Each structure stands twice: as structure tokens, then as C-alpha cells.
């Protein structure tokens, strides 16, 4: 058996679009850019393309590493590459940074051509549906009429689901992993707490913090800390940190005494050093707004009746942010429409973050599903 390998050194690409994009919010982008990466080779009839959609803090950098930054490994590198579940000897894999992002695609930190200054808080609201529409335009540029698969975890899984509804004839397979058909009230509540941490930071300046030469670091730190708690399970935190004290004793202070406190502060500080606050606000709102059944009176089977793809739906036992019951909703709605659905519920102690990890059973499920997808060989 061939050992899995890295795709190696990768280079981001930028595609500029000058045709205006009308947004679901009623906003409009006159022009924009999307940053993306590709892995593997597109075959002659362009039938082997797979789109990977990223989650809240993800990016186009799905696999491989950069020549000048070998430690900057793609966020789903364990999934994409020769001999891996998304085998680049078979598939041409594409990762795209979503509109409104902060990794190169047009977003709040980009220059608004109408003003000559960064968009900041004036960047329009974007939705999952807008991301999919812009990804479809990129597929047009690349000459891809139909994806062999659209794949994503968490918010990426919502994009994969939306692809099957917006462009049902352009998706042969959809892998919807650790996702939900819409957020619960509890999830919206967590997102609102995170947003308020940013919006009430004195350095936020109504979203124009760049003009003031500052970053709402405190708000971003708190937002990430809140979010990070929801990505982990109680078992995972207990196993990794327990109630361990950094100094071996109680020192009766508000400093980080417990190891879990230290970990959350570290994650928050690191995140605030590279992620944009306005992007965080936009992305969590996109999560909140996603609800394909909204225009169908809450009837999910009716909403999913447009889908034509075959589906793989995956959930994780300790994911309390998007628990297996939410995946069951998707599966049942698809079965109601007589769609072909494979479902796997993975026993994992890692919580929502399980979809990012190299779990043998999980990857075995993905490999088995992707192996059965038929594409034309390279020529």
C-alpha cells in the first residue's frame, strides 16, 4: 500500500471578477477577487474537480505548504493528497477563500474602489448563498461545469449543502460533515456573545479600527475563547486539561491559574493576531442566516427537493455544537426526496473539531465514499 503523501509546495492564485455580484442582502459588489489553491491535475474532460469549502476561520489553504513557510500546513492536509481520502492522484481539489474573508479574497480589509479606502464596516453582508454563487463563477473560469464532489465541514458543510440547492446539476456528490440545516437558538446565542465582545471593544470604532491604527484585540480574544469552548467536548477538555493548576496550587488571583484558562487565553491571543474582526462578524452572521427551509415555511424536505446529488453525511458523537440529531434532519429530508444518502456517525471524544482530525474510522468512511466516485482518468 502506498503511504499517504503531502501535495508538497503550493502557491495561491487570484482570480479577479469585474461583473457585479448581487448579494442576498440586497448589497452589491461591483468587482471582487477570490484567492484559491488547487491540488492535483484537472483531467481532459474536467470531470474530476472537487471543491473544498472552509469553515469560520478557515481559508483557501487546504493542503500542502508554502516554500517560504514550510510550517504553514493546510488546515485539512490530513485529508487531501496522494493516498489520502481526497486522493490528488484521482481528483483535482480546489480550496477558495470566501468573500468577506481576510486571507486575500475581497473583504473588509480590501480597498473599496469607490472610496479608495478599506471597506471596513461598510463591506456588505454576505451569506452562504453568496459564497456559493461566487464559487460557481470561479468554476466557470476554470471550465468546470460539474464538480465530482463538493465537500465541507461545519460552515463548509452548509456551503456543500447549498451548492446542491443552488446549482443542482453542477454537483454529482456532496459531503456534508459536522453540519446542520440551520443554527439552533443556542448556537445563535453563542455567536451573539462573540460578536458583542468585538462590537463593545473600545478599539472597534464602529468597524473603522484600521483608520485609527488599532485592532479590537480584546474583543477578538474573547470571541475566539467563546467559540473555542464550543468546538471541544467536555471529555476532550477533561482529558487534556482536567483541573490541573499551572502552579500546582491555588494562588487566589484572576490570572490564568488553571491549564484550561491558559489554553483559552493563548488561543484567543493567537487568533487576534491574524484574523480580522469585521470578517469574524460577517461570517458568524452568515452562519446565523443560513436556513434553506426558511422560504419553505420551515419545511426542510421541501427545501431539499431541488437537490440531485448523491450525499455523504457525517456527524460525531460528542459534537454538541452540531450534534448527530442535526445531521439526522438532513438525512431524513433527503431520504424523503428519494436521494441517495450514505450516513456515518463517528464515535469521537474530540467534539466539533473532530472533523479536522486524522481519525482512522472517519477517514476510512471518506475514503470508501470518494473511492466509488467515477471520473475519467488523466490523459
Automatic annotation (TrEMBL):
Source organism, top-level taxon: Bacteria
Q: Pathway involvement?
A: Amino-acid biosynthesis; L-methionine biosynthesis via de novo pathway; O-succinyl-L-homoserine from L-homoserine: step 1/1
Report the main location listed first in the record.
Answer: cytoplasm
Q: Which NCBIfam families match?
A: homoserO_Ac_trn, PRK00175.1
Protein name listed in UniProt: Homoserine O-succinyltransferase
Localisation: Cytoplasm
Tell me which InterPro entries the record gives: AB_hydrolase_1, AB_hydrolase_fold, HAT_MetX-like
> For this protein, what is the EC number?
2.3.1.46
Q: What does this protein do?
A: Transfers a succinyl group from succinyl-CoA to L-homoserine, forming succinyl-L-homoserine.
Q: Which organism is it from?
A: Denitromonas halophila
Gene Ontology biological process terms from the UniProt entry: homoserine metabolic process; methionine biosynthetic process
Family the entry assigns:
Belongs to the AB hydrolase superfamily. MetX family.
Instruction: List the SUPFAM superfamilies hit by this protein, alphabetically.
Output: alpha/beta-Hydrolases
Keyword field: Acyltransferase, Amino-acid biosynthesis, Cytoplasm, Methionine biosynthesis, Transferase
AB hydrolase-1 domain residues are: 48-358
Q: Location of site Important for acyl-CoA specificity?
A: 321
Residues engaged in binding substrate: 224, 353
Recorded catalytic reaction(s): these are: L-homoserine + succinyl-CoA = O-succinyl-L-homoserine + CoA
Active site feature: 154, 319, 352
EC class of the enzyme, as a word: transferase
Give the molecular function GO annotations: homoserine O-acetyltransferase activity; homoserine O-succinyltransferase activity
How it assembles, according to the record, is: Homodimer.
Q: Name one GO cellular component term.
A: cytoplasm
Q: Which Pfam families match?
A: Abhydrolase_1
Amino acid at each position: 500500500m502506498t503511504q499517504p503523501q503531502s501535495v508538497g509546495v503550493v502557491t495561491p492564485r487570484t482570480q479577479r471578477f469585474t461583473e457585479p455580484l448581487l448579494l442576498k442582502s440586497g448589497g452589491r459588489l461591483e468587482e471582487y477577487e477570490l484567492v484559491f489553491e488547487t491540488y492535483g491535475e484537472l483531467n481532459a474532460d474536467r470531470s474530476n474537480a472537487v471543491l473544498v469549502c472552509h469553515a469560520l476561520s478557515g481559508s483557501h489553504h487546504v493542503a500542502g505548504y508554502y516554500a517560504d513557510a514550510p510550517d504553514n500546513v493546510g488546515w485539512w492536509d490530513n485529508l487531501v493528497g496522494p493516498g489520502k481520502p481526497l486522493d490528488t492522484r484521482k481528483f483535482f481539489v480546489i480550496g477558495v477563500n470566501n468573500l468577506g474573508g481576510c486571507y486575500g479574497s475581497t473583504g473588509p480589509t480590501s480597498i473599496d474602489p469607490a472610496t479608495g479606502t478599506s471597506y471596513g464596516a461598510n463591506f456588505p453582508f454576505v451569506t452562504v448563498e453568496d459564497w456559493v454563487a461566487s464559487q460557481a463563477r470561479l468554476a466557470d473560469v476554470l471550465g468546470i461545469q460539474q464538480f465530482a464532489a463538493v465537500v465541507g465541514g461545519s460552515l463548509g458543510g452548509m456551503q456543500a449543502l447549498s451548492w446542491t440547492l443552488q446549482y443542482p446539476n453542477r454537483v454529482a456528490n456532496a459531503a456534508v460533515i459536522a453540519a446542520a440545516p440551520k443554527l439552533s437558538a443556542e448556537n445563535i446565542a453563542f455567536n451573539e456573545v462573540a460578536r458583542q465582545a468585538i462590537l463593545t471593544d473600545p478599539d472597534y470604532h464602529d468597524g473603522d479600527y484600521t483608520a485609527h491604527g488599532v485592532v479590537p484585540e480584546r474583543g477578538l480574544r474573547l470571541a475566539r475563547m467563546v467559540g473555542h469552548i464550543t468546538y471541544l467536548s467536555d471529555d476532550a477538555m477533561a482529558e487534556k486539561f482536567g483541573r490541573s493548576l499551572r502552579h500546582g496550587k491555588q494562588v487566589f488571583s484572576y490570572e490564568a491559574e488553571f491549564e484550561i484558562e491558559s489554553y483559552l487565553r493563548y488561543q484567543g491571543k493567537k487568533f487576534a493576531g491574524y484574523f480580522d474582526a469585521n470578517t469574524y462578524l460577517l461570517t458568524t452572521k452568515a452562519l446565523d442566516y443560513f436556513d434553506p427551509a426558511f422560504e419553505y415555511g420551515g419545511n426542510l424536505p421541501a427545501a431539499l427537493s431541488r437537490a440531485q446529488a448523491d450525499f455523504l453525511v457525517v456527524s460525531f458523537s460528542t459534537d454538541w455544537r452540531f450534534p448527530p440529531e442535526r445531521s439526522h434532519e438532513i438525512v431524513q429530508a433527503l431520504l424523503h426526496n428519494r436521494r441517495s444518502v450514505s450516513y456515518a456517525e463517528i464515535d469521537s471524544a474530540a467534539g466539533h473539531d473532530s472533523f479536522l482530525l486524522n481519525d482512522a474510522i472517519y477517514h476510512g468512511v471518506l475514503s470508501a465514499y470518494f473511492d466509488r466516485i467515477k471520473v475519467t482518468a488523466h490523459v
